Write the structure tokens for this entry.
Amino acid sequence: MHLYTEQPNDTVSKQLYLDGSLYLYIALKDGNPANGWSSKKYYPNAALQQEENYSSGLLIEKINYDESGAITTHKIWNNRLKQLIDKPAAPKLQRPNVVTGCSSISACLEQLPAISAFIGADYDKDSLFKSYNEEPEWKMKGPQLSFTIYWDKDEVFHQWHCHCATEELYWQARKFLESKFGH
């Protein structure tokens, strides 16, 4: 690889391939890489090869890419070790498949026949009213979905949850319930 360096100035340093395409670009401040993603290297096809993130002259993050743009390495500064280390993979957090909302009891009463049909559960209005006076919650259970209303006797609005067996059902229930309650 044959490169040449353009005459640097106070704010930018560049190296170019012989054909004039950019190989290395560094934004400078006081002769050092500027704060942020200030250093970038490119493949001859102009695809990003590497980028570096600086803070007060210290390299704190570095990402390398293959020619298709996929990340090959991602390193971050570890202050305890005083070196770049492989960026730890973020743990995959599992979102509970629960659609939640808050509405008045009148809105719930209006929508409960449609909700019971949607979740495949029997709707018993008498058990609902009895529950309001005696229990902290009321629930309808279907084969893969359940709908629960949590009573707060001193409030006009009550919280509800729709528990879903799968993520696919979660998205279906969310769309359905948003159409009913306007969330």
